[in-house]
Amino acid sequence: MIRVLLADDQTLVRASFAMLVESAPDMEVVGQAANGRQAVELARSARADLVVMDVRMPELDGIEATRLIVADEDLAGVKVLVLTTYDTDEHVMRALRAGASGFVVKDIHPAELLAAIRTVAAGEALLSPGPTSRLIARALSLPDVPVTAGPDGLSDREREVLVLVARGLNNTEIAETLGLSPLTAKTHVSRIMGKLGARDRAQLVIIGYESGLVRPGG
């Protein structure tokens, strides 16, 4: 069972998501938080596997709550799936930097939300079904965003794979593009994550763009 914590300041939204999650045979709701501070506290007490986190909440917003959860050694392994009203929300990239494993828009189809929860809980990153490159380009244009170290120590093939990851391709699509087997593509991604110290594919996307290896629109 995937233990899910729901964090949203709108009671009706939480109730709707709770009904949806509980309808899945492989999931259960272990807590509901009305703000980011409650989300952090419940993540610790309820031992959730995954937090579905709204960005805009009172007291402590979803970005800071995500940062606190990811930084807590006692919560190692807890994943955060961020909810946003629009896929162009400038807060999404900051949420990914804070440690979120992905994001989805609130008008996502119910079945897609359940699939997103399963994907993130399994250790994969999930980026918005919207235009990822456009979102990243907007986020990186913000003046107060720090830049991380470049992708040093990668082979030419690994750089090719990183470019495709940063453009939002999954392992199957990477394999088809480069003429590899899906297993080989997955192995490359895992090695790149290890070399760069990235927790998941979401961080690889950020590194790819911030290092200049991939440029928005290019």
Explain what you see:
- The chain has 218 residues and is an alpha/beta fold.
- The protein is built from ten helices and five strands.
- It has helices at 11-23, 36-46, 62-71, 91-98, 110-121, 132-140, 156-166, 171-178, 182-196, 201-210, and strands at 2-7, 27-33, 50-54, 79-84, 102-105.
- It has a five-stranded parallel β-sheet with strand order 2-1-3-4-5, with helices on both faces.
- Helix 3 (62-71) packs parallel to helix 4 (91-98).
List keywords for this structure.
single chain, 218 residues, alpha/beta, Rossmann fold, Arc Repressor Mutant, subunit A, five-stranded parallel beta sheet, 5 strands, globular
Concise account of the structure shown:
With 218 residues, this protein is an alpha/beta fold. The protein contains 10 helices and 5 strands.
Write the layout of secondary structure elements.
Elements: E1 2-7, H1 11-23, E2 27-33, H2 36-46, E3 50-54, H3 62-71, E4 79-84, H4 91-98, E5 102-105, H5 110-121, H6 132-140, H7 156-166, H8 171-178, H9 182-196, H10 201-210
Parallel strand pairs: 1-2, 1-3, 3-4, 4-5
Helix pairs in contact: 2-3, 3-4, 4-6, 7-9, 7-10, 8-9
Look at the structure and give the CATH class of the largest domain.
Answer: Alpha Beta
CATH architecture of the largest domain: 3-Layer(aba) Sandwich
CATH topology of the largest domain: Rossmann fold
Count, helices: 10
Task: Determine the strand fraction and express it as a percent band.
Answer: 5-15%
Which residues sit in consecutive blocks of at least 5 with pLDDT less than 50?
142-149
Average residue pLDDT: 83
Gap between N and C termini: 41 Å
Q: Strands of the biggest beta sheet: in what spatial order?
A: 2-1-3-4-5
